[in-house]
Amino acid sequence: MDVNRNRIPAHVETIHLIAVCGTGMGALAGMLKDLGYRVTGSDQGIYPPMSDFLAEKGIPAASGFSQDHLAHRPDLVIVGNAVTRDNPEAQALMEMGLPYCSMPQAVNRFVIRNKRVLMVVGTHGKTTTSSILAWMLHCAGLDPSFFIGGIVRDFQSNYRLGNGPFMVIEGDEYDTAFFDKGPKFRHYDPEVAILTSVEFDHADIYKDLSAVKQAFGSLIHRMAPTSTLIPFDGEPNAAELARECGCRLLPYGHRSDSPWRLSRIESTPPWTRFEVLRDGRLFSAFSTRLMGRHNLENSLACIAAANAVGIPKAAMVAALKSFQGPRRRQEVRGVKRGVTVIDDFAHHPTAVRETLRAVRSFYPGGRLVAVFEPRTNTSMRRVFQAIYPRVFEDADQVLIRKPSRLDKIPPGERLSSETLVEDLKQRGMDARHFDDTDAVIRFLVETAESGDTILIMSNGGFDNIHERLLAAL
Q1: Residue 459 and residue 374 in contact, taking contact as beta carbons nearer than 8 Å
Q2: pLDDT of residue 5
């Protein structure tokens, strides 16, 4: 690789994005278009909603990958992390001598500039926490920019270009590009960083938990002494790494010695009310529609961060009370025949457990049916085979859909959904296995009862199961 061309030229007018239909790459394309650049893109699969978004923005998106898509010789090519070294366009840009960079490099150059970066990192809760923080800044009248990994319903977007001084970024620990295997968050210099958790995930790029901790440690060790790290005190790995930082440290959670703590939690659906203690004294009382203790912890992290940058207390209170949440995070998609259908992004065992616990607390009356599609590169592997049976305990019934992309996983490393169901049954649970989505829908239509809550968990589209199920009901 020519590292001299892994730079952004001083003058740029035309930009091409390879793998433009990814959530982050699509958002970046939209931001660049809004900033006045001429933007094109390409991807293997171009379909709604991203195809509609790009069309509305006037961004041409070519189907497939071909050197012909670079024939106009753009001033810069942004390479998504899904792009491999042997991608035809990656090979062509090298042969043509075109300047290129990664997505985080482009965000730094074109979007962040001189803004004050508030970043959320961690294995869990990044999207929700980033969304809350951006909404707090907005409610304080600070006109924030943000770049988040999910659609924030309050803004109906996963990005925003504001004129205010702050930029909220969801920091991704996934690798940056085929020419840069370090985590994306390593490219950013946060003034404030929230660290929610550090657990093993992304088994396709991290060998073990030690490698994951090393990645997060690389961010913490390079934070400026004048910056602030806000780690969750209830997660051992996050707490351990936080002790190694050389910057201001403001832990949050439940420990009596943490500066920011939760207190007096009362749940009366659809509201949860709680108090926040700062250095042991009452800071304020808050109300939120978010479900579950983990979301109170996410909210607390944002309160600590917002206070660190001077956001008024009244704005925090108003923001949490009005916050709608990101899409696909405990999102009620509809109610039919008295059956509530909820969509959630949960896939890691911890996220599955906490999401089920949260939904159960808000819907205690009827059955809670968990529908789970293992779909990530980690959840399709057997690395969590023995752990998954222990995280569904709050469900009355568990339906496991066979992973649809097992061909991407070596045979000896694949999760067995059949074994998972058998292990759940041995724990006394009503669990069933399905080969495809159609079979899941048929079963639910035949067995769902008024008062049931069906929680569908997947990090993918799950064959549009939510709308199809509601229509069938």
Answers
A1: no
A2: 60
Fold (CATH) for 114-322: UDP-N-acetylmuramoyl-L-alanine:D-glutamate ligase (3.40.1190)
Instruction: Report which of residues 129 and 152 the model is more confident about.
Output: 129
In CATH, the architecture of 331-472 is: Alpha-Beta Complex (3.90)
Q: Take residue 306 and report the two structure tokens written for it.
A: 């917002």
Quote the pTM value. 0.87
Which residues, other chains included, contact 416 with Cβ-Cβ below 8 Å and sequence gap of 6+?
382, 385
Q: Is residue 2 over pLDDT 70?
A: no
Q: Would 3-103 and 331-472 be classified into the same CATH topology?
A: no
Mean pLDDT of 24-35: 94
Rounded Cα–Cα distance for residues 40 and 62 (Å): 8
More confident residue, 18 or 290: 18
**What residue ranges do the domains of the chain occupy?**
3-103, 114-322, 331-472
- Domain 3-103 is of which CATH architecture? 3-Layer(aba) Sandwich (3.40)
Over residues 90-103, the pLDDT tens digits come to: 999 999 999 999 99
Return the closest-CA partner of residue 39 out of 20, 64, 66.
Answer: 20
Q: Is the pLDDT of residue 3 over 80?
A: no
Q: Whose structure tokens read 């059956």?
A: 339
SS3 per residue for the chain: CCHHHCCCCCCCCEEEEECCCCHHHHHHHHHHHHCCCEEEEEECCCCCCHHHHHHHHCCCEEECCCHHHHCCCCCEEEECCCCCCCCHHHHHHHHHCCCEEEHHHHHHHHHHCCCEEEEEECCCCHHHHHHHHHHHHHHCCCCCEEEEEEEECCCCEEEECCCCCEEEEECCCCEEECCEEEEHHHHCCCCEEEECCCCCCCCCCCCCHHHHHHHHHHHHHHCCCCCEEEEECCCHHHHHHHCCCCCEECCEECCCCCCEEEEEEEEECCEEEEEEEECCEEEEEEEECCCCHHHHHHHHHHHHHHHHCCCCHHHHHHHHHHCCCECCCCEEEEEECCEEEEEECCCCHHHHHHHHHHHHHHCCCCCEEEEECCCCCCCCEHHHCCCHHHCCCCCCEEEEECCCCHHHCCHHHECCHHHHHHHHHHCCCEEEEECCHHHHHHHHHHHCCCCCEEEEECCCCHHHHHHHHHHHC
**176, pLDDT greater than 90:** yes
Picking from 365, 441, 423, 420, the residue whose alpha carbon sits closest to that of residue 396 is 365
